[in-house]
Amino acid sequence: MRILTPLLLCLATTTLFAHEGHDEHAGMTMTKGPELGATAAIDAKGRLWVADAADGHVRLRHSDDFGRTLSAPANVNAVAEPIYAEGENRPKIAFGPKGEIYVSWSQPRAKPWTGFVRFVRSTDGGVHFSTPITVHHDRAEITHRFDAMAVDGQGRIVMAWIDKRDLEAATAKGKPYLGAAIYTSVSSDGGASFSEERKLADETCECCRIALALTPQGEVAAFYRSIFGDNIRDHAYAVLHADGRPLEPQRATFDDWHIAGCPHHGPGLAIGDDGVRHAVWYESRTRPTIHYGQLEPGKPPAHAQVMAVAGANHADVAVSGKQVWVVWNQIGIQGSSLMLRESRDGGLSFDDVRPIANSGGAVGSPQLLLWQGRAFVAWNTAAGFRLVPTEAL
Question: Where are the domains of the chain?
Fold first, then answer.
């Protein structure tokens, strides 16, 4: 087991996560670049939507030619407010069963590293949006941030976020508590209201995004960085039952990375129609590594493989039938490259690495999107948003 010193941790994290801001627990100040946090999605009609933030507004753009041209941005919140728009903590977009558009984001509060999870909806194709609401009932000025959103098979909106109410309670009693908790909430009325939040897990990583994916049964599953023992920052998996059944997280990776701080590097999750849970994640116990594996909660992942090492960061994964795609950013001396590996046998083996796009400036985290069996990568760069087909040379 390797423990990084604060200096080595700062240097390693600064190199890989130069656009993530400040880590409140590792004591590191990282170079602040442009806020390129954006989320994209393709609706049932093939229209691409992109959610990002500018000038105190979450904004939406759409494209009917797969990103070659984008519409003028439309603000979803009429009144400007602070908005987190970093790679790990960016605005989200999802669609309801009747074409509703749902948008969420984390709103900074006055105190450092605090926030509220915010939500709006449109029932007319993005022409009008509701007044933003705060998802959680707890209104303490603490961390409610790093929101994740998905719509389950019954049309319910499932939200999850990182929350520090339990850390605050433990600190007030003089008790130890590592990291933060994850809480969830569900809307069964199309986002008009959200249920009382309930806790998924204690002592999870405080700044790594939560990956959500639908199971074949239409439920929402979560894959997230948790804390085991004395700052072992591996990952856990749980199904976020929207019907009130108990939430039962299980450890899902076993790299034993001991790190006393958040690496700002959440995982990716895609679940096939056959129920196979394809996952990618980052750890740096001996060297910076992006892993792929098929989750078997409670046991080490099956078919675990190293996808990339030094300079690789912020991976995502998608699956369609036996086709599996893994993408990530690769930092080099001339900027960043968008890298791809493909599997045609359900993740048992992968083709060699190949670059499919390059940028000489800052880039956001890549996101894989599927449309009619094809895979595209949403890639926000300092030069503008790009939708990169995985067939690109």
Answer: 6-389
Residue 277 burial class via C-beta count within 10 angstroms: exposed 0-12, middle 13-18, buried 19 and up: buried
Helix (H, G, I), strand (E, B) or coil at 325: strand
Q: What is the pLDDT of residues 293-339, one digit of tens each?
A: 999 999 999 999 999 999 999 999 999 999 999 999 999 988 999 99
CA gyration radius, the chain: 19
List of residues 6+ apart from 299 with CB closer than 8 A: none
- Rounded Cα distance, 47 and 65, in Å: 8
- Read off the pLDDT band of 26 (50, 70, 90): very low
Distances 195 to 34, 102, 187, 250, 261 between C-alpha atoms, Å: 35, 16, 6, 24, 31
379: Cα separation from own chain's centroid: 14
H-assigned helices in the chain: 6-16, 165-172
Tokens of residue 120, six digits: 């709006």
Nearest Cα to Cα of residue 281 among 345, 216, 230, 237: 237
pLDDT per position as a tens digit, 1-18: 333 333 233 323 333 333
Class of domain 6-389: mainly beta
Q: What distances in angstroms separate CA 358 from CA 332, 354, 363, one per listed residue?
A: 10, 11, 10
Structure tokens at 351: 């083709």
Compute CA distances 302 → 114, 314, 316, 325, 353, whole Å.
37, 21, 18, 17, 21
Q: How far apart are CA 209 and CA 28, in angstroms?
A: 19
Proportion of the chain in helix, strand, coil states, percent, rounded to 5: 5, 45, 50
Question: 366 φ, ψ to 5°?
Answer: -75, 150
